[in-house]
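Let us begin with a simple case.
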Amino acid sequence: MTITSTDNPRIKAIAKLKKPRERRRSGLFLIEGHREVERAIAAGVTIDALVVCDELLGDAELTTDQLDVLRVSAGPMGRIAIRDSPPGVIAVAEQFATRLDDLQLSDNPLVLIAESIEKPGNLGAMIRTCDAAGAALVVADAGTDLFNPNVVRASQGSLFTVPIAVAEAGHVIDWLATHGISVIGGYPDAPGPPWGADLTRPTAVLVGAEDDGLSSIWDGVAEPVRIPMAGTADSLNASVSAALLLYEAVRQRSR
C-alpha cells in the first residue's frame, strides 16, 4: 500500500523529527537522499524505517533487505523532507553514541575541534572535510545538534564514517591533555601563520563560532595562528577556516 495523505499519523510522527525536541525525546533522526541512506546502511547505522517514493527514486537501486519500508507518494514525502525538492528515500535512524571517551584515534591523531558552531551547514561541511583529511571531529559546546537534518545533508554521508564526539569544552581540554594532543587555534590577531606551527605531532585544530570566535576557556591552551588574508575581509567562513588549517596539517605530514 502507498500512503498518499500528508495527514497520515505515521507521516506526521516522522515529520516531527525535523524538530530538535522530538529528536531528543525519541533518539531518532532523519537521513535524506539515496547516497546518504546507502552510506548509513553500509556504516552499520541502525535504520528503523525507510520512507520510499518510487516516483522520485527513479531507477536508483536501494538496499531494503530486512528493513521496514514505507511506500509514499510525493505529497507525504514533501512533508517529511527538509529539501525543497524531496528525495526518493528518507531513512528514520537511531542516533548513535558520541561520547568523547569512546573516540577512536589513530597513532598520530589529527582532530578538528569545532566550538559552538551554530550553522548546521557549516558543521556538516566540517564533517566532510574531516573525512577527506583523515581527521576526527570533536564538537565542543555544541551550538546545533549533530543529528539536525541539515547537518546530515551537508555531511553527504561522512557523518557515518568520521570518528565524532560531542562534549563540553572543559572536558575536551582535559581529554586533550590526557592524550598528549597539542592544540592550535585560529585567531584573527595571532602573530603567525599555521605553517609556522608543528602540525606533524598529535594535533588538534580549533575553530570557533561563526560570530564570536573562540571562547576564553582556550586561552593558554591553544597556540594561536592566523590565516593570512590579502583583501579587505577580516574573517573567513568557519568551515573554510577549518579546511585550511586541517590541510596545512596534511601538507606537513606528507613531506
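The second case is a distinct protein. As before, the sequence precedes its C-alpha cells.
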Amino acid sequence: MSKIVRGRNFSDIGTNKRVKNLEKMQTRAGTPNYISPEVLAGNYGVECDLWSAGCILYVLLCGYPPFYGDDDMEVLQMVQKGKFDFDGEEWDEISKEAKDLIKKLICKPEKRLTAQEALQHKWFSKALKAEKVNSISLSGNRLMNFKHF
C-alpha cells in the first residue's frame, strides 16, 4: 500500500528506484551516533535512514560506533566530517563485503545505496546463498565494547 504525504506517492521508497521530487525534510532531530550530516544541515530526505542503517551495522559488527567523541558535540563534528575507519582488531575477521556495504551506506547521499540496493548487496547475497547467516561471536572485546557504549 502506498502512503500519500503532502500529495506525494511514496510507493517507490525501498525499491530500486531513486525517489525524486520529494519535499526535503528540515527538522534537525536524531541520535548523535546515527544521525547523517544532511540531517544536521537541515535538508534531507529518506536516504538519511540508510546512513543510520550503516552506522547500526557498523556497531553490530564491532561493538562500537563509527563516529566518536568525548561528548555529543564532538560526535556530531565527526559525523559532519564523515570519516570513519575499520582499524580496530575487531575488523580483522569481518568480511570485505561487509565493509564495502558499510562504506556504501555511510557516504554522501548521492552515492548512498537505496534500501533495495543495500538488500541486493553482495554481503547479503553471499549469506543467503549459503542459506545461513554466520553469527558473530559476542565474546571478548566485542562484548566489552557494547558494555561501554
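The mean pLDDT is 78. The first helix runs from residue 37 to 41.
Keep these points in mind for the review questions at the end of the chapter.
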